[in-house]
Amino acid sequence: MRGVMAGFGVLCCLGGCGSSGAATAGAPAGDPVRVLREAADALVAAGSSKATTSLEMATGGTRVTIRGEGVYDYRRRLGRLKVMLPQDPAGGTVRRPITELLAPGALFMKNRGAGVPADKWVRVDTGTLSDGNLVTGGATDPYAAAEVLRGTRSAAFVGRTEVAGAKVRHYRGTADLRQASRVASGTNRESLGAAATGFATARVPFDVYLDDDGRIRKLRHRFSFVNGRQEEPVAVASTTLLYDFGVPADVRLPHGDDIYAGRIAEE
Fold it and tell me: pTM, whole model, 2 decimals?
């Protein structure tokens, strides 16, 4: 699955925000599967939010972590993230943050390196990625992450707890990417469909924390893909935290003249 590895040459990170001690309060009214399938709609109603993301991958005895933070507009399906690459193991290279713009069907990256001029953007058609850009960019698109839940097959209420000071309900379950792709909105149908066939399995275990308005505050997916260099599936943990709903999220996509048209060297 070269698309996953070519995005940065490395992936991933674990989001360690929020407490995990669930209380034993009674479950809220409503079928958990139905509640989770509607969670993405609650984000659209909220309009926008700040987001922090993380990806973590462990393979070959090496653990790689990538973190991001920014804003997302759920109605326009536009986001902006500053993605922090992991430290060079040798300590000899200072890696600048990569600015990412998330848009329907496209990922734009600035400071991509690999011979790309500093003032140019790299555009990637997410429909061509075998993981649907759930992990390639080093960050999972927050709205795509929420739409994975539209494919929830089974889920259970775990308990009540807090995430970053917000009272939340913790659910645990499994989603099916094929089902999610059939009911997702717009271009996410194509992206999630690609992920359903590109990952080692279309089944995605998750933990999600919803506030009293049904909005996602924390969402952790566990994806599995096959690296082209080895047959054993590689596990990737993707964590997304959402907060400060309603904040301004002015995301402007680059003009055509600002997009790099040359060949990108592999890193």
Answer: 0.84
**Strand 233-243, strand 62-73: pairing:** unpaired
pLDDT at 90: 52
Helices (H), 125-266: 142-148, 177-183, 188-198
CA neighbours closer than 13 Å in the CB half-sphere of residue 36: 29
- Range 28-57 burial, b when 16+ CB lie within 10 A, else e: eeeebbebbbebbbbbeebbbbbbbbbbbb
By the 10 Å C-beta count (0-12 exposed, 13-18 middle, 19+ buried), 164 is classed as middle
**Residues of the chain below pLDDT 50:** 1-25, 265-267
**Helix segments in the chain, DSSP class H:** 2-6, 32-37, 39-46, 142-148, 177-183, 188-198
CA dist 22 to 25, 66, 120, 144, 258, Å? Answer: 9, 27, 46, 26, 48
Q: Are 265 and 115 in contact (CB under 8 A)?
A: yes
Task: Answer yes or no: are the C-beta atoms of 193 and 132 closer than 8 Å.
Answer: yes
Reading phi first (left if > 0) and then psi (alpha if -120 to 50, else beta), residue 164 is in left
